[in-house]
Amino acid sequence: MPISRDTFVYNAVTEMPDITNVLRLPELSCRHSKILSAFCNVTYTYRHTVRFGYPNITESVLRSPRSQLAVERTVQELLDQQGLPLDENSKAYKKEKKKCEGKLKKLFHIMNAMMSIPLFKITGWFLNTVLGALLNSVQVHNSQLLVLKDATLIDISSHILVRKAGGLPANAQESPGLYTLDLHTLALRYPSPYVAAGDNLNIFGFGRILRSLGGFFIRRRLDKEVGKKDHLYRAVLSEYLEELLRRGQSLEFFIEGGRSRSGKAYYPKAGLLSIIVDWVLASRNETDGILRLDALIVPVGISYEKIIDGDFTREQMGMAKKPESFWSTVKAIWKLFSTTYGNVRVDFCQPFSLKEYLTVNERSLLSRSVSGLSPVTVLGNPRLQDSMQDLSKATPSSDLLTRATSGNSIYGIDISKEDEKVVIDALARHILYNSMCATAIMSTNILAFDLLSNYRQGVSLPELISSITKLRETILTANRDVGFVGQTRNVIAHACKLLGSNLVAIERNGAPVSWQDIYDEEGGDQVKITPNLSLPHVLELSYYSSSVISVFQLKSLLACSICAASGVALLDSSTEDQFSSVSVTKHEVVEHAIYLANLFKYEFLFIAPCKDLETELSNSFESLISSELILSPEAEDTFNEEAQQWTSRIARKAIYGFHEEELQDHYVPDKQYKLNEAEKDQFRR
Fold first, then answer.
1. For 525-572, where are the E strands, in sequence order?
2. How buried is 351 (Cβ within 10 angstroms: 0-12 exposed, 13-18 middle, 19+ buried)?
């Protein structure tokens, strides 16, 4: 854990595990007065005065050296296309420069956010009223809010809130996001961050509201024409973000670039993050090499019990995406009022210092950049790993991590330094991994996962209750949190209600029944719950279940690796008679798992970049032994006479001295592990 994260861990936090329903804050603040409680939302908004200044950075951005350099570059390219010389006194030069300056100004005003304090208060009242009718709760840890509030008191340049993409369509996903803004502004009395939004949301009416609440719009693609750099847009984007950081403003953006279509974490997009890193690196003192500026990174995870029916299932089936428009936004908002969406959970991770991260990674950066290999590949090969460790002992050059000399040189835009790319990519994956691990598993997630993984043909309620209970304990044992409490029967009933009859069928003695029959402890035992496996409903169920996959990623790698190492299709029921005869070694299983991890490294985020993959796989292998899915051989069968001789030789040479080349012809005996036939069903799951 970085030292900067230790700063925010103390007894007052660990002693506050309770969760607050933010929707009830207005009600609780007015509970002593019957008159005020009738207008609690209005009263709460009025009492929480918001007096924060948001700077006007128009002139600073447009007249910056970077922006002026971009204008000169663009003018030169335009004159070259026309075959004209670069003469500052010519009419053609003045004409093109005036056009470029006008375009630069237009790009800035399209991007720029215009904070409106009155609209903040109105939005706070509106969201408290509307979300209170649509959601059961918006859950936030008191301890996390306390940590976040204390982080704002630190004398630091800026704070970066990095959110994992949620499960709502783009035009509806901003509602919890806007509520997060008002949570900062009203509850914490902390300036609301500027929020990066795609230019597809800059639509009539809705875009103006987002802009007034701190949303600034950026292109999905920086260059309109392939192979032709838009110097003006790149300069405006870079200078805009850096100027906000210089003014001490906070930023919020989605590390995955947009909403997830599959429910699992996407490979992170590091474009905006690279601007922040570039800004911190630019503050390096030339005398002592110390970074003067800093920013706190706060990963944020948001969990939804029910997603709004968007077009992601259409896209999964190969249909074209419907572009956002004013009417599609109105329809999405109108659809919000037709049902209940359960609970929303917001989790703030521990803040950490970007300055500290960059300083610590300077020493290890050399080995990563020189190798040219992915982190998974390096960590998976002991010989390569040893050579990388030798390389890392070398002292890195003083300018190993320095800002590129280009006026707009940033990763994802125009970076020329491969080493900086490595650090930024690792930072992005680290943030996403923290956010993914902090995201709570909701009731609908665990039910969909259990049905699709174990009971595709349906399951009786008593068996499902037992399975969900065990699965919940497994998730908690893996240091992941769940976003529900209470008896498992009630949790299943609540999840079935939210999923609806389109996704899960509830029957009793072959006749369809309501989710309310699950509460019946006498007749409920005859209830059978079956998932809908037809398209496109199974895709939606898969979306819900994807949140739980991250808990079992490493164990799934090992299970597939055991199949590959044994050469037996263990997942096929026709190979049941061969199950007990399978024998594998830990070394070959881990080797296969490393290969698979490298193969799927863009689909799944298995570990944090700072951890060793081989070590984590080894620990997961030991957990399979502890759970008795894999049987370890007895001690007397493990060390035969040859192994004992080898061990004795190692001990003698450790005392009297030895050279590594003397042991090259000898090997470390590896245990043979067998699968537990009694747990073969659990292994296949």
1. 527-531
2. buried
Q: What is the pLDDT of residue 25?
A: 73
For residue 257, give every residue at least 6 positions away whose Cβ sits within 8 Å of its Cβ, in sequence order, or none.
165, 220, 266, 268, 269
Q: What is the pLDDT of residues 554-612, one digit of tens each?
A: 999 998 998 888 877 666 665 566 666 778 899 999 999 999 999 999 999 999 998 99
CA distances from 87 to 70, 97, 100 (A): 17, 11, 16
Structure tokens at 582: 């399978």
Radius of gyration of the chain (CA): 29
Helices 488-499 and 461-477 cross at an angle (nearest 10°) of: 100
pLDDT over 60 (residue 613) = yes
Give, in order, the Cα–Cα distances in Å from 555 to each of 304, 382, 440: 26, 21, 20
- Asked if residues 227 and 233 have their Cβ atoms less than 8 Å apart, the reply is no
Going by DSSP bridges, is the β-strand pair 295-304/158-163 parallel, antiparallel, or unpaired? parallel
Residues 673, 678, 684, 685, CA torsion sign: negative
In the predicted structure, residue 99 carries a pLDDT above the cut 50: yes
Which amino acid, 549? I
pTM over 0.85: no
**CA-to-CA distance for 458 and 506, rounded, in angstroms?**
9
| Rounded percentage of the chain residues whose pLDDT exceeds 70 | 71
Burial of 316 (0-12, 13-18, 19+ CB in 10 A): middle
Residue 27 pLDDT exceeds 50: yes
How far apart, in Å, are the Cα atoms of 651 and each of 278, 644, 645, 669?
Answer: 52, 11, 10, 16
Contact between residue 675 and residue 630 where contact means Cβ atoms under 8 Å apart = yes
Separation between Cα atoms, residue 271 and residue 254, nearest integer Å: 11
Residues 6+ apart with CB under 8 A from 326: 203, 204, 205, 206
Cβ(297)–Cβ(355) under 8 Å?
no
Cis bond upstream, residue 536 (ω within 30): yes
Question: What single letter denotes the amino acid at residue 538?
Answer: V
Assigned token pair, 349: 């991770």
Angle in degrees, CA 318, 319, 325, rounded to 5: 140
Strand spans (E) along 517-580: 527-531
The rounded Cα 94 to chain-centroid distance in angstroms is 47
pLDDT per residue as tens digits for the range 631-658: 877 543 444 555 555 556 556 555 555 5
Question: Which residue in 49, 21, 20, 25 sits closest to 37, CA to CA?
Answer: 25
In the block, tokens 């609690």 appear at 40
Continuous H helices in 317-372: 326-336, 354-371
First CA to last CA distance, the chain: 33
533 within 8 A of 542, measured Cβ to Cβ: no
Is the torsion defined by CA of 441, 610, 300, 324 positive or negative?
Answer: negative
- φ, ψ of residue 545 in degrees (nearest 5): -75, -20
- Contact between 331 and 171 under an 8 Å Cβ cutoff? The reply is no
Residues 6+ apart with CB under 8 A from 172: 308, 310, 332, 333, 336
What is the average pLDDT across 266-291? 87
At 132, list the tokens: 């209170």
